[in-house]
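Handout, section B. The chain below has 383 residues.
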Amino acid sequence: MNNTLLSAEYRRAKKQWPFIDEIEKAHKLPVRLLYAVGWRETRLQNIMGDFSQRAGESSPRHHGFGVWQRDSGTFGVDESYLKNVRKQAKDAAELLRANFGIVDDWAAAIAAYNCGPGNVRNALAKNLSVDHFTTGGNYSADVMATRLVLAKGSKAAGQPDHPDPSLVPPRGFFKPGRSHENFTPMGKRFLVWLKDDISCEGDEYKPGAGFSTFDRENVKKCQVLMGDEPDGWFGQSQWAKLMTEKPPKQPPNSGACPVAGLRVTQGFAIKDARYAAGEHTGIDFGTAGDDTIRCTGSGVVVVSSLDSDGFGNYVVVQHEGDRFSWYCHLSRRDVAVGDRVTKASTIGMMGSTGNSRGKHLHYQESVGGHSYWDYAKPSLLLV
């Protein structure tokens, strides 16, 4: 990166188009992001992009217009678009903000500006870099590096110096052994959120730029307090909560039936040929930190068994009105046939036994009997 040229073009663009800063602020973008994207696209020049015929196109065309290279095919812009740089800046800011709303991470949102959010989500689903499908394989990394150079140089103008604690580190940094400057302010917030429950080596937790196995556990503990799945890395909305909000006294839906968090991962009656009934016969709940499975109503345990090819460890409770509740794929069962239970009684622990692709609770209800084919739309017996 030619920092001298970058600095000169940044100063020229800031003077020529002073509205860029206000547009960044209005759309709540990271400081200097529009300048960084514009630098990557056109070196901050208001120009027409390459004129060529790409695969699948019937004729050659200019593929982008303006400082931020608005795509002519997707957005229908033409040479007249060059006349209004304010609109260009606003359009680019809106697209970046919209991408962020989809992927909840600025590194991913920047990559999506180049290759689209669908490609970025596909890359993340395969555990690949957000830049896997971008031009040159480094679009987001390059833009973020440029933004940091510009942000560091803006302190005299009253802008915050890096690290900017409002920005979550990219997902790939949340691995033991990786380092990021923003992990230090993250650790300071762990001390506020977790207090005596903080995971650490020895007697004292010390915030630092390095990410450790203890930090991963602390991320998960904070996510549980937020009522989210404890996956060990923060999205931007979670990061904002951690950095700006007071910790809740207890996780949302703590102690709920049948499981804390009530985080539905698959609904009832979803059509799928994998199921004998041709549809999903219950509701799947993912973990939210507390994996205790609780009974949804008073009754008597009529099944406590292992179905190794299907529901794994599962329990069935009979309630009034000849209605039954099922708790499946448990890691363990804490009740036996004939046990009387009440609402919120512990049934067992969430697991992934039987025909399961990952830890979850399959909850279903049946009416008139407790065979597989007696299933009914779950009421959760909460009323």
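Note. The first strand starts at residue 51 and ends at 52. Compare this with the example in section A.
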